[in-house]
């Protein structure tokens, strides 16, 4: 699902990610939240224990950053939980100085970083009328995406084994027949796509799928046998996917090398049509200040395998010189995602009355 490039280019990409972090605040340096009691757990065998709340980055039985709602949206808050979201977080093990291949499940600082960046700024976009479950897992270091090492498959397999175990634990102990939304970004999407294949692409589980938000990595058009792309904002049992780039830019490291057609859904129109969607359709982005919702930051238009947009509009955007907006895939369309989650849940329920 993704092309690979050399280690040197991976280091350059890690540097570029740090620049974007200043703007989008997704995997940025955070205060040392690891000193808090909830990060003091230690895995005896190095594996996650999903019966212990410590091994969930987000869970409805505890207060966590995914429960947060930006201040301008709190007046519309609903306490109804009509569906479950199983969210798989992106790579937060990105330091070029870190030589670990997979993250320890009980790394205090890494878990804190995941919670107060990805859970807060990404997973929270899906908490509209839902319960969010997001497992900690032994994520693979970002360098594995940019090398052709023979061991990469085993590294990603280890990470996915945790995700799969968490999902099975969720099904046995928490689901109770509720409909499900799968949501993920970047490395999380790699695992989420496999999860959909294993559990939803055939059989009765497909009937429980409201939508899958597979964001940040390409999904080939024939990747699934029975799950199709969402071509309308209220369609259910389908998936959406996009990757964000500046208009006119062709990513020669990844996109130009792809030999397949990827599914792209426009998060401003929720269709696969390549019609231009103006900024006026963008109902709110979340950037560095979580409690400030800014409308009209980004427009969107599908171009081939990616989503193109003009340079996002916000104070200080002169700092944004990159043309790859991967790290803002969710932030840029934050409120549009929230509204769409609510719309698809309503459509799913109406079709089953």
Strand order of the largest sheet: 1-3-2-4-5-6
H-E order: HEEHEHEHEEEEEEEH
What assembly state would you assign to the polypeptide chains in this entry?
single chain
Query: What is the count of β-strands?
Result: 11
DSSP helical segment count? 5
- Work out the radius of gyration: 19 Å
Which geometry do the CA atoms define?
globular
- Largest sheet properties: 6 strands, mixed
Span from first to last CA?
Answer: 37 Å
Percent strand equals 5-15%
Q: What structural class do you assign from the helix and strand content? A: alpha/beta
Number of domains: 1
Low-confidence segments: 1-19, 26-30
Helix fraction bin: 10-25%
Mean pLDDT: 90
Structural descriptors:
353 residues; 5 helices; disordered N terminus
Describe this structure in words.
- By secondary structure, this protein is of the alpha/beta class.
- It has one domain (7-351).
- Helix content is 25%, strand content 13%.
- The chain is built from 5 helices and 11 strands.
- Strand 10 (301-303) and strand 11 (306-309) form a beta hairpin.
- Mean pLDDT is 90; it is low at 1-19 and 26-30.
Which helices and strands occur, and which strands form pairs?
Elements: H1 7-24, E1 56-58, E2 83-88, H2 108-121, E3 130-135, H3 152-175, E4 180-185, H4 187-199, E5 209-215, E6 238-240, E7 244-246, E8 285-286, E9 293-294, E10 301-303, E11 306-309, H5 334-351
Parallel strand pairs: 2-3, 2-4, 4-5, 5-6, 7-11
Antiparallel strand pairs: 1-3, 8-9, 10-11
Helix pairs in contact: 3-4
């Amino acid at each position: 699902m993704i092309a690979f490039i050399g280690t040197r280019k991976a280091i350059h990409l890690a540097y570029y990610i740090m620049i974007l972090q200043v703007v989008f605040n997704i995997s940025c340096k955070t205060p040392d939240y690891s000193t808090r009691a909830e990060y003091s757990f230690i895995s005896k065998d190095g594996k996650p224990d999903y019966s212990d709340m410590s091994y969930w980055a987000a869970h409805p039985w505890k207060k966590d950053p995914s429960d947060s709602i930006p201040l301008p949206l709190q007046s519309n808050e609903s306490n109804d939980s009509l569906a479950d979201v199983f969210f798989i977080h992106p790579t937060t093990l990105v330091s070029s100085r870190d030589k670990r291949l997979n993250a320890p499940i009980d790394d205090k600082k890494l878990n804190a970083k995941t919670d107060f960046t990805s859970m807060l700024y990404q997973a929270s976009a899906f908490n509209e009328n839902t319960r969010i479950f997001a497992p900690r897992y032994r994520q693979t270091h970002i360098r594995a995406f940019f090398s052709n090492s023979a061991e990469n498959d085993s590294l990603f397999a280890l990470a996915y084994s945790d995700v799969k175990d968490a999902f099975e634990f969720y099904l046995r102990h928490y689901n109770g027949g509720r409909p499900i939304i799968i949501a993920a970004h970047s490395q999380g999407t790699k695992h989420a796509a496999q999860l959909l294949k294993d559990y939803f692409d055939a059989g009765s589980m497909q009937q429980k799928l409201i939508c899958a938000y597979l964001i940040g990595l390409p999904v080939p058009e024939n990747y699934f046998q029975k799950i199709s792309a969402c071509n309308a904002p209220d369609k259910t049992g389908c998936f959406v996917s996009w990757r964000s780039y500046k208009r006119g830019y062709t990513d020669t490291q990844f996109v130009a090398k792809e030999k397949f057609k990827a599914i792209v859904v426009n998060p401003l129109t929720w269709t696969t049509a390549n019609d231009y969607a103006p900024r006026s359709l963008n109902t709110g982005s979340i950037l560095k200040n979580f409690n400030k919702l800014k409308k009209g930051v980004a427009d969107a238009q599908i171009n081939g395998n990616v989503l193109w947009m003009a340079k996002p509009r916000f104070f200080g955007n002169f700092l944004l010189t990159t043309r790859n907006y991967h790290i803002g895939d969710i932030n840029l369309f934050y409120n549009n995602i929230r509204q769409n989650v609510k719309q698809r849940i309503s459509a799913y329920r109406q079709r089953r009355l």
